[in-house]
What we know:
Layout: H1 2-15, H2 60-68, E1 71-72, E2 80-83, E3 86-89, E4 95-98, E5 109-114, E6 118-126, E7 142-149, E8 153-159, E9 172-173, E10 178-182, E11 185-190, E12 193-198, E13 203-207, E14 213-216, E15 219-221, E16 227-232
Parallel strand pairs: 1-10, 4-9
Antiparallel strand pairs: 2-3, 4-5, 5-6, 6-7, 7-8, 8-16, 10-11, 11-12, 12-13, 13-14, 15-16
Amino acid sequence: MRIAALVALSLLVAGCSHPVGDRSGQPQTSVPTSPTRASASGTASKPATPSAAPAAGAPISDVIAWIEAGHSVDPGGYHSASRAGISTQLGTDIAFVLPSGQSDTGRPVTCMTDSKHTDGTLSCLISLNSPPPKPETAYGDWKSGWVDFDGIILQVGSVRADPGPFLYGDGSQLAAGDSLAFGDYRCRADRAGVFCVNYAHQSAARFSSAGIEPFGCLRSVPPPDGVGIAFSC
């Protein structure tokens, strides 16, 4: 009996001999880590498009963004021109006018395309405040406010034997704030003038009585014979 009692006592002592700091037999409890809060500025917002028309020297990306921010209009309403009450359908060509009442200069800007004779060129007639003088190399009827823009070349003033597409008169009004897309172009009317971009060549121009302003790759170059002012990419 004494032997049995001693064995029982030994087992009891062994069962109570675990170190006080040993918690290996207990479930681990941890404080949950607070989730990282996402930065409110994690996604960069697109810069707001300026409401004012692009100034001289503005980057072409800014000019394009401003033009595209205009109110898009249906090109279907700009395929005809009228003179003295007679309307002429222009097929796929485009004609529009920024009326004088919506221009800061009080003078209209009339633009047309003529795919039959000058494919890919936008021509505008403008009464310029400071028109280029007739060059000595120009022979014939000098049109100081005739402007041609094809994306690569921008020319102001030229000799014209006939009125070209402007024979048919003016196109529909492109009101200030409206944006019109056709071919490689998109134009937006503004009180500061008409701004047109040629996407194919990433160039643009402002047409206004206050002056013709180039953007993008266009740089001033010596004008060819019969032309007043020229820019080229």
